Amino acid sequence: xxxxxxxxxxxxxxxxxxxxxxxxxxxxxxxxxxxxxxxxxxxxxxxxxxxxxxxxx
Length: 57
What we know:
Blueprint: E1 9-10, E2 15-21, E3 24-29, E4 34-39, E5 54-56
Antiparallel strand pairs: 1-4, 2-3, 4-5
């Protein structure tokens, strides 16, 4: 589940997206202050190579 809602800000270093693969979980962290403008996947969706996850500005 994405850790923020559309239009919300996300701070540098903030955890915002857990990914699970092969029963291992990795948490993505923001690389800079941003704002979510679009979420491109649904919870529990399978993600393949080249799939976008979110759009941040």
